[in-house]
Design a protein that fits this description.
306 residues, alpha/beta, Rossmann fold, 6-stranded parallel β-sheet, two-stranded antiparallel sheet, 10 helices, globular
Amino acid sequence: MGSPGPLRSARVGGPVRDGGPPAPRAVTIDLWYTLIAFSRSGPRAYERDRRSAWVEPLVDRGLPQRTAERAVRAMEEWAFRRENAGRSVSLAEQARELGRLTGIRPPSDRVGHRIAFALASADLRWSPGLHPALASLRRRGLRLGIVSNILYEPPEAAHDLLRRLTSDLSRFDAVVVSSDGYDAKPAPGILRRAARELEVGTNELLHIGDSDQDMIAAHQAGIAFLRFTGRPRSPAVGPACPFPRVRYPSVRSWPLLAAHFDRLWAQAAAARDRVARLRRIARASPGLSEEPPARRLLPPIATPLR
């Protein structure tokens, strides 16, 4: 790759390339597998404990163990489909779905307490290199927020998790989770809520996440998107991406993100602007459809750019 070109200073957000997009004023970050990750065995152990919180009340009421386990998995698939449609799904709604499937409705508050305990006991860690990278973004004058879907946990468990992992939540200016509202990624409303809390426009915001839900939410909200590819496990299959052939940037680690932020922001903003142009063309010419559903990522930045 060629030289990134001359830099010029910006009022907020640090230097940007000549002729590039206005500098961002804020960055929002997904929680799971972007900010934090489980240890190697952590996800399976936590998922087992989380499902047990639902299965045991069903078994106590006389349902066979395997039947209860199948019902809980069916409920989780139902909840995941609803989340993929942009809906936040509470534990009370999940309990009602189990009641529909089995005729037994577990107490969602008691189940929530058990899930919260399982999450508090899980082996979680910050992504490697995260804290120096956040400090680098702060030095640019950027506001920082967390935007994350919380599907199978009570909302207080997610906030408790953040307090447990760090005693300095002031490093984030906003924390917006789906379980606190009615919408979830891929719906754009949750990112627009974060933009309002951070007091920035959507064109001044960069969202960093690891999943198609993150990408679609940012795309629909008119927000620049950067894919984080450093997670150890592949994300669950998300909703279809009926978007034009746009090259989204990606990065494999937080140190590389901090070192090449200007380039990544320019690429993300260019992808956002191209999508907006194509959609305007499609609206002006109803007979013309957008490009075939496809998604390409720019090659992840894995080594320092020259």
